[in-house]
C-alpha cells in the first residue's frame, strides 16, 4: 500500500516563523522529493486554530497566509493534497467517534492541556483545547496516514492517535493504519533572539515575512555575551552562530565556525554576515508569497476537494458501519 505522509499547521498568527520553516515545512518538502511514491497531505489546521482565534476575519486572514506560504515555500501543489477540513465533514464526524472511546485521564496527561493549564486556570481552558488531541487524531486517522511530521512536543499527540486507532481496531475490527510521528532532525533546538526556544510566549521570533529593516533590527538584537573582538567564542554556546546555521551551506558554516573559534571576529561582523545570508534566503520567499493571489489559493483547494472528500467519506462510511450507526 502506498505510504501516506500527513501534516498541518495552525493559522494562529499572520505568518510563519523560522521554526515552521525549518522544523515543519522544509522537512515536509524534502520528504515529498525523497519519497516519490508516497501520497502527501498538507492541510490547514483551522479547526485547531479556533481554540485561540475567536474572530472570523482574523482566522480567515491567517488561514490564507498559511496556505500561500505553503506554496511560496516550495510545496508542489500538483502533487500534495492541500485542503481545508471545513470542506470535509469527516474530521468532525470522526472526532465524535474517537471522543467516545477516549477517557478523560488520557487527555489530562496531554501537553496541549498541560500547557493551557500552565497559562491559566483549569476552569478557563476550553473543552476544545482539552480535546485538541482527539481532533488531531481524527485529522490523521481519517486518511490512514502512516507518517506524521511534527515538532517534538506534538509527538505525544501522534502517539495518542496511534493508541486510539489500535483501540478502535481491537474493538470494531481492522479499520485504521497506525500512524507514527516523524520528528525532523535538529528541529528540537531552534532558538529565538534571546537564546530561549523560539516561541510566541517569549516574543523572540523571526518571521518569514519580516521586511528587510525589521530583520536587520532583530538580528542586531540577538543576545550575546560580553566577549571582546579578540576573544575566541564557543559556537555551540552562541546564539548568533546557532540561529545562522540554517542559512549556510556546510562549507560556509565550517568557515564561520573557524572564525568564531579563532577570535578576532566581532559580534557586529558576525551579525552583519548573518543578516546578509538570512535576507538572501528570505527575500525570494517573500517575492513568491506576494505573487500568489487569493484566487490561486482557492483554485488549489478546489482542485483537491473532491479527491480528499472521497477518501474521508469512504473512511467515515466504514467507521459508521462498524460502530452501528448505519441501520
Ligand atoms: P508556540 O506557540 O510555542 O510558538 P506553536 O503552537 O506556534 O508554538 O508551534 C506549533 C508546534 O511547533 C509546537 O507544538 C511545536 O511542536 C513546534 N515548535 C514551536 N516552536 C518550536 C521551536 N522553537 N523548536 C522546536 N519546535 C517548535
Ligand atoms: N497540533 C499541530 C500543531 O500544533 C497541528 C495539527 C493539527 C496537526 N492536526 C494535526 C499536525 C494533524 C499533524 C497532524 O502544530
Strand order of the largest sheet: 1-2-3
- How far apart the termini lie comes to 31 Å
What's the main sheet like? 3 strands, parallel
Number of strands: 5
Tell me the overall shape.
elongated
Radius of gyration using CA atoms only: 22 Å
Bound molecules: adenosine-5'-diphosphate, tryptophan
Which bin fits the share of residues in helices?
A: 40-55%
Counting DSSP H or I runs of 4 or more residues, the number of helices is 14
**Which structural class fits the helix and strand makeup?**
mainly alpha
Rounded mean pLDDT is 94
Uncertain segments of ≥5 residues (pLDDT<50)?
Answer: none
Percent range for β-strand residues: 5-15%
Give me the strand/helix succession.
Answer: EHEHHEHHHHHEHEHHHHH
What does this structure look like?
The protein has 327 residues and is mainly alpha-helical. The chain has helices at residues 18-34, 46-49, 56-72, 90-99, 104-108, 111-119, 127-130, 132-141, 155-172, 212-221, 239-244, 250-262, 267-291, 294-323; strands spanning 4-9, 39-44, 81-83, 147-149, 180-182. The chain is built from 14 helices and five strands. It is elongated and about 80 Å long. The structure holds adenosine-5'-diphosphate (ADP) and tryptophan. Adenosine-5'-diphosphate (ADP) binds at residues 19, 23, 150-154, 187-188, 190, 197-201.
